[in-house]
Amino acid sequence: MPVNRADHKTALLLFARTARNEALEKKFLPAGTISDNYRVAGTLLEQTRQTLGNSGYPTIITYDTDQRGADFNERLANAIEDVFALGYEKVISVGSDTPLLTEKHLKEAAGALNDHQMVIGPSRDGGVYLLGFTRQAYHKIRFLQLPWLTASLQQHLVYYADRINGNFLFLEELADVDGATDLLQLLKELPDNHFLYRFLLGLLQVKPVRVTTHHLPFSIRELQSALGRRGPPARA
């Protein structure tokens, strides 16, 4: 992987489930086959891997099958410490469920850590899709006390920065995909030339009629109806 020599002390950390385990944990489609759900999870993961790889920064991937710790907080803390142990001075952690994440966001985050101790990519649900630390800003005890996987995480990260007398920068807010409702919203926001837009339309077998907006189902009930036209799910 090409390393950005201008900032060789910054590493990207992909902290995620395997596609199989993500598909088992999240129901991306209100109907359809297990295989279709797996295809969505796998596509989101691969897109993230490509985005990170194209950024020019070294990328370290840790899947749930290799993570260490009793809970999410501890597993993420250990993964971040492993990156620091490799000699990097800055770590930018992301998951695999934010399809609108781009190389631009990653480069902006890396640049922000030149002048800030923390960078936060806020999700619309109150969580984060990206979190970056300098080595000096990472304090494990306080990190473990953060309310991960809750809607108050952003607020507590601001408290965290205040307690360590650190400065921080918020990036653009993005949406993550945790289920069928989020997937429907994603379809409305993706540009029609984005490969994910075409992939998801093909999977749902919804015909796009392009004028000035996406002509898609506008409710979960209508999405279920559209998916129901695909035929019965395959036997597991």
Give the averaged pLDDT, no decimals.
84
CATH architecture of the largest domain: Alpha-Beta Complex
Residue share in helix: 40-55%
CATH T-level fold name of the largest domain: Spore Coat Polysaccharide Biosynthesis Protein SpsA, Chain A
Low-confidence stretches: 1-6, 206-236
Shape: globular
Say which CATH homologous superfamily of the largest domain is assigned.
Spore Coat Polysaccharide Biosynthesis Protein SpsA, Chain A
State the assembly state of the protein chains.
single chain
- The structure class reads alpha/beta
Distance between the termini: 38 Å
The Cα radius of gyration reads 19 Å
Query: How many distinct domains?
Result: 2
SSE string, helix = H, strand = E? EHHEHEHEEHHEHHH
With strands numbered from the N-terminus, the spatial order across the biggest sheet is: 2-1-3-5-4-6
